[in-house]
Amino acid sequence: MNRRIFIGAGASAALTAQTGSEWGGPVIDIHLHPRRGGGESTAHVDGMGAARAVLLTNLRDAERAKAEVAAHPARFAWFAAADPSMPGNFDALQKALDSGAKGIGEMKSHTEADAKDMRRVYDMCAERKVPVLIHFQETSKFTGEEGWNTGFAKFDKVLKAHKKTTFIGHANFFWASISTDVARESEYPSGPVKKGGLTDRWLADYPNLWGDLSANSGNNALSRDKAFARGFLARHQNKLLFGSDCSCRDGHGTGSGALLPSLKNKCVGRETLALLKELTTPDVFRKITWTNATRSLQL
Ligand SMILES: [Zn+2]
Ligand SMILES: [Zn+2]
Questions:
Q1: The domain 3-296 is classified under which CATH number: 3.10.180.10, 3.20.20.140, 3.40.50.720, 3.90.1640.30?
Q2: Closest by CA position to 46, among listed 222, 244, 238, 281
Q3: pLDDT 10s digits, 45-100
């Protein structure tokens, strides 16, 4: 492609992203990590055909996220995260909210989801009226990747004890738990879903639990059993949020490190948007990709 054509294609992609026409309306990605090196977060949002994104930011990258929000206030908001067991981090998270963070997340540390330090963060989120997004993962085939916010099977205790906290669940074990036959080793289970899984039940039973459909895990939950997914998306249409958690550079799969064979070299976000389009009505698609986040959660 010569340079002139390439520039033309880029400009038209940016225009499409602003008008939201590629997906029939504007899309917000509630799960993007700020990229190293300026401009790349924008490249992913534009390339995927989205209008906005929430930058989930470890506190060590806070300055980068703030700079992106300052440069594009209409396109980005940011959440702050840190290991709450480390000295000073609780106060640092409060300060991040003071300086404009719209939520806490993603929380991802080697701790029990109902550890004392975590519960202190949940209380703070209730007080400040901001959501907390949590990565639930019990095991992994990669050393050091196992055991993030463990103990999901008894997370209903937390949901009951922190009724005023808005929890957004995400990752391997959260999404494997749409099925009752989830094993602790489950990461990306395939095949038919057995109805009555904890995630499905708790989304129905607890108004303070929401679901983030990002990453390999969210995509897998929709693709493994499409008949189940249609019903699931319809049932929880007011509490599900589209996110990408994609590491590709351009919203088209370049440099994608996606793990699932079906997502290899693809943009996880773009593939999940296509699945949502296939499995929902236009009204439900709009809720999950825009209004639930922008209106209900006021992001
Ligand atoms: Zn995660
Ligand atoms: Zn991508």
A1: 3.20.20.140
A2: 244
A3: 999 999 999 999 999 999 999 999 999 999 999 999 999 999 999 999 999 999 99
Give the count of beta carbons closer than 10 Å to the beta carbon of residue 45.
25
Query: Domains of the chain: which residue ranges?
Result: 3-296
Tokens of 142: 């990669």
At 257, list the tokens: 């490190």
Distance from C-alpha of 116 to C-alpha of 112, rounded to nearest angstrom = 9
Q: Do the Cβ atoms of 121 and 97 come closer than 8 Å?
A: no
| Buried/exposed code over 213-233 (b: 16+ C-beta within 10 A; e: otherwise) | bbbbbbbbbbbbbeebbbebb
Q: How far is the CA of 53 from the centre of ligand 2 (A)?
A: 12
Q: What is the pLDDT of residue 82?
A: 98
- Nearest Cα to 201, choosing from 155, 147, 139? 155
Q: How far is the CA of 137 from the centre of ligand 1 (A)?
A: 9
**Widest Cα–Cα separation across the chain:** 60
Position 37 scores a pLDDT of 64
Expressed in angstroms and rounded, the spacing between residue 65 Cα and the centre of ligand 1 is: 17
